[in-house]
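Lecture 7, part 2: worked example. A protein chain together with nicotinamide-adenine-dinucleotide.
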Amino acid sequence: MKNILVTGGAGFIGSNFVRSLLAYEPELQIVTLDLLTYAGKLENLSDLPSPERHTFIQGDICDRTLVDRILSDHAIDTIVHFAAESHVDRSILGPMPFIQTNIVGTFTLLEAAKTAWAGKSSKFRFHHVSTDEVFGSLQPGDPAFNERTPYDPHSPYSASKAASDHLVRAYATTYGLPVTISNCSNNYGPYQFPEKLIPLMILNGITGKPLPVYGQGAQIRDWLHVVDHCEAIVRILRAGKTGETYCIGGDNQPTNLEIVRTICEILDRKVPRADGQPHESQITYVTDRPGHDFRYDIDISKISRELGWHPSRALQTGLEETVDWYLTHPAWVDSVLQKQDFSVWMDANYQERN
Ligand code: NAD
Ligand code: TYD
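Predicted complex, written out as structure tokens:
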């Protein structure tokens, strides 16, 4: 691994990954390809260690000519593919960009990778970053998802990610492209766009806005700190077997309401409300998400056993650090909140639920 292309590297997980990789791999050159949609921000890449080893290119993964040129000009031997439309609620309100980027974009990258690789280097790798949501929804008592769980996606987002996973496997089976896939649970941590549960609750909590809990907040997610996810991907790149899939998760099972209450309790300590009321008083129960998956739980025994990876941050510690990060980065928060698309979308989503 010498020259790596990171797609979606200006987004939440991608930017954390670029930062981790520059720190862990002192010889590596990194190219980030990112369209800078509403979710991508150059500011996410502003504090890189060794920035001279990083090149940013704004562009679309669906642009075959551009992707071909990058693979050739930078002698890319490794692709780590994060670029995607990533938010379930947006996929319900408008699925088209999910089909285009997540399916057509992944197909375009695979075609370009196949041409660049052309069977000539055993060192080539295409790593596809996916989600546990492709496996569907668990009921109480069901066993956790693992690498052999059948696919059963429910939202346009998870269906588009499932399609992209299948394409990646097809390119491995049919053409021998050296691929790996990871299916990870919900991430949280610095630089997450505040449409997702945890940063939305932190920022609405601080600014005195309603904390919209879908349904009764009984749904369960498995939360993983983004830096732990990035370390897992680095291990897969270093020691994972081509053709293999690895499930990644945080080994915890809080309900959404428990997560929101924990964030409220942290905010009560760090930024008490002027009126002395607890932040929990801002919780508002809103109409549930259609097709809302009830529970995700992921079995990490394969990646633990084969690659020695375990999540390193306890959820409570990770949440405290994440609240601190949002409190100490007001310029980043302001620039995200000022994006016009964000306020328009938040209004549409909120109205949909009221
Ligand atoms: P994100 O929405 O924060 O970032 C996505 C990035 O992709 C943005 O920078 C955006 O500008 C870029 N992008 C979108 N369309 C593009 C296109 N056509 N061409 C080039 N760039 C484009 O997403 P994230 O939360 O960082 O997720 C990254 C990846 O990880 C996704 O593939 C997602 O499915 C997967 N994943 C996310 C989670 C999670 O909890 N966030 C969990 C498991 C897997
Ligand atoms: P989200 O962060 O959107 O991730 P995903 O849908 O990919 O799991 O949502 C996490 C959970 O939180 C999910 O069960 C939906 C719920 N949720 C709310 O209750 N309120 C909100 O405002 C949001 C954004 C999510």
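The domain at 3-193+224-251+291-314 is CATH 3.40.50.720 (Rossmann fold). The mean pLDDT is 95. Keep this in mind for problem set question 3.
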